[in-house]
Amino acid sequence: MPVVYVAMSNAMQEWGADVGVSKQLYKVGYTDGDAQEAVQELGAENYAGHADWQLAGSREVEGLDAETVMERACERQKVLDPLYYPRLKGAKDIVRLDQRKVEAHIVIKKTMEGGDSKVPKLKPADMAEFLIESIL
Predict the structure, then answer these.
(1) pLDDT per residue as tens digits for the range 10-38
(2) What is the pTM of this model?
(3) Which one of 1, 8, 16, 126 has the fewest CB atoms closer than 10 angstroms to its CB?
(4) 95 to each of 66, 119, 127, 132, how far by Cα in Å?
(5) Is the distance from CB of 87 to CB of 20 less than 8 angstroms?
(6) Residue 104: HSE in the Cβ half-sphere, 13 Å Cα cutoff
(7) How far apart are CA 107 and CA 48, in angstroms?
(8) CA distances (Å), 29 to each of 12, 86, 114, 120, 128, in order?
């Protein structure tokens, strides 16, 4: 079954923070196989100039293809332009998330479920879940 996954690179996040883009940079991907293997391939091929890719989150999907996933990611999130940032080495699927939007989404979701409205400390899995939900 096809899988949408979100990967992260600590080196890329440090670079994003250093140049003032954002520390919350993630790669959106689509694979017909295992998401963990797809992320390991990213590291092996030194994708976007970084070899330390880790799986942040994934979800099985039906009725979507790779083009649709990227189209929705570009519509709903800010995707970095590899022509403007040559350090990305042509990677067109690096997404910049706004931490405040993710926090607000989680707080509203918890409040609607009757939970505590405290702002959580975000983890990469929370960011990946938000990104996958926005794509689907």
Answers:
(1) 999 998 888 888 889 999 989 988 999 99
(2) 0.85
(3) 1
(4) 15, 23, 11, 12
(5) no
(6) 5
(7) 33
(8) 16, 20, 33, 26, 11
